[in-house]
Amino acid sequence: MLQAINLSKKYKTKVVVKEVNVELFAGESVGLLGPNGAGKSTTISMLSSLVQPSSGDVLWNEKSIAKNPDPLRKALGVVPQEIALYPELSARENLAFFGRVNGLKGELLATRITEVLTKIGLLDRQKDIVKTFSGGMKRRLNIGSALLHKPSILIMDEPTVGIDPQSRAYILETVKQFVADGMTLLYTSHYMEEVEMLCDKIYIMDQGKIIAHGTKEELKELVSDNQTIELKTNLLTENFEKNLKEQFPQATFRIDEEILTISMSKSEEPLANIFAIAAASNVVITSAIVKVPSLEDVFLHLTGKALRD
């Protein structure tokens, strides 16, 4: 349905996307996962015909969009990372504008606006000015503007950035329903759990390159010989962490608030040594959990750094 072939983008001397190959089939839900600055948004912009690639090609239904992007644009809905709304207009007026841009008018436009407002949970706020909306409401309206013309494929570029947990949960459930209804979806994020929840096939991108792709199960097989240990302590000291790294030089470490996560080979049986090091470092371990590999473990295995760095 949509395919990128050796897609690259260079700005002056900086190459931001390097020979990316991605494909979406009808009805698929595909995640593009990577940290900030990985090249996801630039890739999305090229796939949606907003940015010309420096080299490579984008195919829509096996035809290049380089000279004629209109068939793709008519079938495509795009939810950009930045809010793209008119703050001085009401929710309904915003949707009316974007509907007309997509060729809708008259009774059909009015009907679609009401349907979309209902779907995104803003029907009761349709006459309110957008600048009075919360961040989550603006995000939902941003999504709604991409749905008016009933696109056959939807591209969403980090649609939950900077919003409260309730709005994020609402948006994810809404997108989950799109997928259940058969929408073809390309979803970019640096939130691992979102992609794992929504997507059947996943591409992992870092430093402008696709470094791995496959189903969730296939990607987890890359670290099937690994284990992850999550430690909670009363006090996480530099000396404790230093001693752990000396004891387990092949392991990968990351700290998220008060939790120390260690990824290492299953062949090691580390808990006794970890508790001994903690005692010697005057650290009390309050919780130790051994977990099966996750998608974040895959990312750490491939890049050696936490996804949200």
Q: What's the β-strand tally?
A: 14
Assembly type of the chains comes to single chain
CATH superfamily of the largest domain: P-loop containing nucleotide triphosphate hydrolases
List the domain count as a whole number. Answer: 2
In the CATH scheme, what's the topology name of the largest domain?
Rossmann fold
- The poorly predicted ranges are none
Note the main sheet. Answer: 6 strands, mixed
Descriptive tags:
309 residues; alpha/beta; Rossmann fold; Alpha-Beta Plaits; 2 domains; 6-stranded mixed sheet; 4-stranded antiparallel sheet; ABC_transporter-like_ATP-bd; ATP-binding; ATP binding; ATP hydrolysis activity
Description:
The structure is a single chain. The chain is of the alpha/beta class and 309 residues long. It folds into two domains: 2-218, Rossmann fold, CATH 3.40.50.300; 225-292, Alpha-Beta Plaits (2-Layer Sandwich), CATH 3.30.70.600. 35% of the residues lie in helices and 29% in strands. It contains eleven helices and 14 strands. The chain has a six-stranded mixed beta sheet with strand order 6-7-8-3-9-10, with helices on both faces. A hairpin with a 2-residue loop joins strand 1 and strand 2 (14-24). The longest helix has 16 residues, at 165-180.
